[in-house]
Write a structure and sequence with these properties.
Layout (H helix, E strand, L loop, with lengths): L1 H25 L30 H20 L5 E4 L5 H10 L3 E4 L3 H16 L1
Parallel strand pairs: 1-2
Helix pairs in contact: 2-3
C-alpha cells in the first residue's frame, strides 16, 4: 500500500514537472533571440553511440528528444542542477551529464534500478 502511494506521488511530480516545462516554453517571449549554444553536443549524439549503450532505438530516440528539451530549459533558466525523479536505469541522467555536461541528481525508489544505473554509468564512462 505504501509503495503504491509513493509511486502515485512520483507520477504526480513527474506530470507537474512536464507541465511546468511546457508552460515555461510556451510563455517565452516571441521576440527572444534564439540561443545558438543550447544543444552544443546533441548533434554528435548519433555518432557517440556509447551514450546509447544498452538502449534500443526507440528508447535512445526518446532519451535524446527529452534530454535536448531538458538541456534547453536548463540553459535558458540558468539552473544549477537537474533532478531526475524516477530515474530508472539512468538513461536520461547519463545523457544529460555526458552529452551536455549538466549535473544530475537521479532519484529512484527501487534499489535494483539504482544499482543498474551505477553499473551502466561506469560502463558508459569507460568508452
Amino acid at each position: 500500500m505504501r509503495s503504491g502511494i509513493i509511486i502515485i506521488i512520483i507520477i504526480i511530480i513527474i506530470i507537474i514537472i512536464i507541465i511546468i516545462m511546457v508552460v515555461t516554453i510556451t510563455i517565452a517571449p516571441a521576440d527572444a533571440a534564439p540561443k545558438s549554444n543550447i544543444l552544443p553536443v546533441a548533434s554528435t549524439l548519433h555518432s557517440a553511440s556509447f551514450i546509447n549503450h544498452g538502449m534500443n532505438a526507440k528508447k535512445a530516440h526518446e532519451v535524446e528528444a527529452f534530454g535536448r528539451l531538458c538541456a534547453q530549459i536548463y540553459r535558458e533558466q540558468t539552473l544549477d542542477q537537474v533532478a531526475d525523479v524516477g530515474s530508472g536505469k539512468g538513461y536520461l541522467g547519463t545523457y544529460l551529464s555526458l552529452a551536455h555536461g549538466i549535473p544530475v541528481l537521479e532519484i529512484d525508489s527501487r534499489e535494483v534500478n539504482t544499482r543498474s544505473s551505477k553499473r551502466r554509468r561506469a560502463n558508459v564512462q569507460k568508452f
